[in-house]
Amino acid sequence: MRLYFENNINNISKLKALESLKQKIIPNNILYSNEGLFLIEKKSIKKINIVDDFIEKNTINNLNFLIDHSKINYEIVHKIPFQHHFIKSNLIYYGLSMKSKIFLVIKENNNQIIDFYFETNENPNNYSIQEEINTLISYLN
Q1: What does the pLDDT read at residue 11?
Q2: Half-sphere exposure of residue 46, counting CA atoms within 13 Å on the CB side?
Q3: CA-CA distance, 102 to 122, in Å (whole number)?
Q4: pTM for the full model?
Q5: For the chain, what percentages of helix, strand and coil (3-state, to nearest 5) are there?
Q6: What residues contact 29, with CB distance under 8 A and at least 6 apart?
Q7: Do residues 32 and 17 touch, judged by C-beta distance below 8 A?
Q8: CA distance 84 to 75
Q9: What is the pLDDT of residues 86-135, one digit of tens each?
Q10: DSSP secondary structure string, 64-122?
């Protein structure tokens, strides 16, 4: 699930402070077309199927979040639509370790931040998840 800041935070530009917590960078090459969204990977093409679910508001240590419970499924395909728009970006994952249960994900295109959110499979009300969120945010203050 993804946790989006309900209000934009001004500190996101202080990403240099998080550099020591950078865990991985994943290319995120997406084709946008009338037939849907497609993820282009080194050896495969996957159609992105988003299963919408509910969005809830939650406050964690005086920060308001929108929690998106939607699921993303992938279907391997062997062709891409003729008419499409291609956007190449990177997903940069910041966490306390590679085994963290939650990551701050920054989506960049041409060194510009185009999206940011926390990503986890755990309950965001879990104390350890909230502590990790607080620690990551403290680097931005």
Answers
A1: 63
A2: 14
A3: 8
A4: 0.91
A5: 15, 50, 30
A6: 39, 40, 41, 86, 87, 88, 89
A7: no
A8: 18
A9: 999 999 999 999 999 999 999 999 988 889 999 999 999 999 999 999 99
A10: EEEEE--EEEEEEES---SS-EEEEEEEEEE-SSTT-SEEEEEEEETTEEEEEEEEESS
Q: Is the dihedral of CA 115, 97, 121, 32 positive or negative?
A: positive
In this predicted structure, what is the pLDDT of residue 16?
Answer: 77
Residue-wise pLDDT for 22-67, tens only, equals 999 999 999 999 999 999 999 999 999 999 999 999 998 888 999 9
Dig out the tokens for 53 from the structure.
Answer: 């679910």
Burial of 10 (0-12, 13-18, 19+ CB in 10 A): exposed
Per-residue confidence band for 78, with pLDDT thresholds at 50, 70 and 90: very high
Residue 45 CA to residue 126 CA, distance in Å, equals: 36
Cβ count within 10 A of residue 104 = 26
Q: Which two tokens stand for residue 5?
A: 């800041």
Q: Which residue type, as a one-letter code, is found at position 55?
A: I
